[in-house]
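Input set for joint prediction.
Command: fold jointly, output tokens.
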Amino acid sequence: DTAVSQTPKYLVTQMGNDKSIKCEQNLGHDTMYWYKQDSKKFLKIMFSYNNKELIINETVPNRFSPKSPDKAHLNLHINSLELGDSAVYFCASSQAGTGGDTQYFGPGTRLTVL
Amino acid sequence: DAKTTQPTSMDCAEGRAANLPCNHSTISGNEYVYWYRQIHSQGPQYIIHGLKNNETNEMASLIITEDRKSSTLILPHATLRDTAVYYCIVKGGTASKLTFGTGTRLQVTL
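tokens >
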């Protein structure tokens, strides 16, 4: 019973293509996130949704568009893929409460753009 | 969110306690100290967090100094599977981002 799951695990595609990565959480959390880890291993926030509403939007090219059909899902669509988009993308979720809101991460999607 | 400073790398013998320090001298009153680790290229794994009291769970203990300017993560009996990059993160507010630094690469050896 995976808490935060992502599909696909690996994605290899050509430059210029459009692709989507899906994320689902079964923890009942109301906030979901997308992080990107580049080749130098730096992990950075990209987006965050709370109850399907965008609340964090870091400086990310508008080729990246998150979509949250419901609280349990946050998908990432990427248009016109570029070589520099190659990275590992992690989804996470959290639930606000007393004592902080711990984020739980998915296993990641390794995107390779050729 | 406050910035943290951690040693780049540490070694620990298997079976011994691993003590990972973190400085966060600019932490604010409502900010928590979180610890995560990343094993190879897996997703970051939550370990423990605290506000001002020391905390313990099945994975580790977190010791926070009284002035809250530094903390130590303790893995009481390190195993080879604890080899990972450990991140100390200070975070305030709900639904806010985790700002990952470069972390401490812990190598557990036989």
